[in-house]
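DOMAIN: structural biology
WANTED: fold as tokens
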Amino acid sequence: MSDPAASAEAELRRLLDIMARLRDPVQGCAWDVEQSFDTIAPYTIEEAYEVADAIAARDFTALPDELGDLLFQVVFHARMAEEAGYFAFADVARLITDKMIRRHPHIFGDAAVRDAEQQTAAWEVQKQAERAAKQQHGTLEGVPIALPALTRAVKLTRRAAQVGFDWENADQVLAKLDEEVCELRAELPEADPERLKDEVGDMLFVLANLARKLKLDPEQCLRHANDKFARRFNAMEAIFTEEGRSLAELSLDQMEAGWQQVKAAEKAVRSVP
């Protein structure tokens, strides 16, 4: 039986060699050679989302391929960095390995065994120490700007909560949401785009806080809502298509009736034992 570790090492070495060949200024691929950190970064983000999509779909046939695409992004960035004299792939692997050992003293050191909640708290303490070592002394320093907005909102407010700047419970967040809804409603008559953007942003920020207080991921919540809307809309459209009618020729009331028909069918299916 082959050694999985040796096999993994060999395949990784092969990937690193292929990346070096692709970036070769003479014999490499013209597209790969002309890329930079800035041009590759959007692909890195895209590949991470495709990994998340495969997981959400429980498509474990596609997942290895998607993880490979994401790994290739890491190798690509590391190769460009090595060419520029910044660092190499080995530094990337070493730094994450050292970090995992440092953040798990209950596994690799002599710290007491922790449950999941204790580990989360200890993890945050360790990250604070690491930020201090990097001279990131502000509470909110180090939260990436490029994160999806809802995710960044959660991270910002979680950091603020660590120093006591937080609502006590979800009911207080809901009260704040009511306040923001009233402020948005007051801006509607003037319809100033900048003011509306500000107020809608405040509402979304409070909703991200609400999700955090309820121990939910707002990105997952919104993805679930998106999927539910698409599923119901497609089902509604299919109903009218079977009748030989297009949505463009229907009134809003007719489409709403179809929407309610789809919701009722979903409810009936859920109630079946």
